Amino acid sequence: MKNIFYLFIASLVLSACTTDIQTNNPAFQAKFNDATWRANDARVSIDGDGRFVITAYTQYETIVLRASSSDLGTYVLGSTNQDSYASYDFDGLEFSSSYDTSLFSGPAYKISNIVNSGTGYTNSNNSQTTPVSGSGSGLKFAIQTNVNGNITSVSIVSRGDGYKAGDVVSIVGGNNNATVRILNTQQCNGEIVIEEVNNGKYTGTFKFNAVSASGEVITFSNGVFYNVSGAGL
After folding, report:
1. Cα(20)–Cα(22) distance, rounded to whole angstroms?
2. Domain residue ranges of the chain, discontinuous segments joined by +
3. Residue 6 CB neighbours (<10 A)
4. Three-class SS of residue 124?
5. Long-range contacts: 89-95, Cβ < 8 Å, 24+?
6. Measured by CB atoms within 10 angstroms of the end CB, which terminus of the chain is less buried, N or C?
């Protein structure tokens, strides 16, 4: 069923993409897995909590991008702040499927922040971690430290598995007191960037990985919305 779904989607998106975005004003498009996806219509609204919402449609599909504000800026997806959120729904004649960036456990994707820089650490390219909250395992970091043994930067070298956004891990080494918070996971991540607002018309970019209830992941990349307003395309 999954292969049939992707073949059907590919036929839809390829048939819809004979014109470059520069000739469409306004426009909404992205790469959906390995094919180009273009909306037949897209509309912007501001909800009752002041959140930016853009809803894009084809005959059988709906993408919803929601940012916690309509201000210019970058809005991270898949984090504990679910005010920023993306979803994709397919509703065909014979089957349907839904994906979103709500919290889902998996390999760690990005780090939110160093909660405690710790003491007694030295530079390492393979620092192991232990969970402070959550039940993930296997996450490893490359760490940089200062002369006082405090960790100043962290990058992921092994993503592990079983983590959720907001989980905190402790870095093994030094005095074992450095802690780091996970921003999002490999299944649920991305960003919405609002770059320009002109007379109620919004321009920006987006990308996201979204997951179904069964754990299946889809990817939208190189996404662009251009001069989209409440009036649609």
Report:
1. 6
2. 2-103+187-228, 108-184
3. 15
4. strand
5. 89/61, 89/62, 90/5, 90/9, 90/60, 90/61, 91/60, 91/61, 91/62, 92/8, 92/60, 95/1, 95/4, 95/5
6. N
Mean pLDDT in residue range 14-40: 75
Listed in sequence order, the residues at least 6 apart from 55 whose beta carbon sits closer than 8 Å to its beta carbon are 42, 43, 45, 62, 63, 64, 65
Q: For 153-191, write each residue's pLDDT tens digit.
A: 999 999 999 999 999 999 999 999 999 999 999 999 999
Q: Is the pTM of this model over 0.70?
A: yes
Segment 27-30 long-range contacts (CB within 8 Å, at least 24 positions apart): 27/224, 27/225, 27/226, 27/227, 27/228, 27/233, 28/54, 28/56, 28/63, 28/224, 28/225, 28/226, 28/228, 28/233, 29/223, 29/224, 30/206, 30/207, 30/220, 30/221, 30/222, 30/223, 30/224
- Strand partners of residue 170: 130, 179
